[in-house]
Amino acid sequence: MSKQISRRAAREQGFALLFTLSFHPNATAQELVAGAIDENNGVTALAIDVFAEQLVTRTIEHLDEIDAGIALRLKDWKMERISRVSLALLRLAVSELLYFDEIPTGVTINEAVELAKRYGDEDTPSFVNGILGTIARQMIEHS
Asked: Are 91 and 50 in contact (CB under 8 A)?
């Protein structure tokens, strides 16, 4: 069941689904969406927005490429050390940067940082901003 909400709220849904992926790494996008809908014994717990579903689907389809791109930008860190919140936010935003050309880069980064402020610890916003800023600059240099 899909419904349309603001892009900000849709990103938050996408983040929540990708956060769930950290606990179920082999789940498909369809399983994550179905899990959000079928909680509480089949009662719809959350109507997933079309944009959120697209974000999650593209992220999972390109997860290896997205994770490789994130790993390349980590200085003295390993992917395993990134918190689940930060990783879900980075995956979501990198997917948006790479596969949603119609969305301005600044909007994508700002939205990820705002979610980081809401769901991460005090270091999460600057960490997410730094990684995404590096990726965005390198994308511009290579275009």
From this structure: no
Fold of 7-141: N-utilizing Substance Protein B Homolog; Chain A (1.10.940)
* Mean pLDDT, the chain, whole residue set: 88
CA 14 – CA 10 distance, rounded (Å): 6
- With beta carbons less than 8 A apart as the criterion, state whether 28 and 37 touch: no
Q: How far is CA 26 from the centre of its chain?
A: 16
Q: What's the rounded Cα separation, in Å, for the pair 135 and 59?
A: 16
How confident is the model over 39-73, as pLDDT tens digits?
445 444 567 889 999 999 999 999 999 999 999 99
| Tokens, residue 65 | 């490429």
E strand residue ranges, 64-104: none
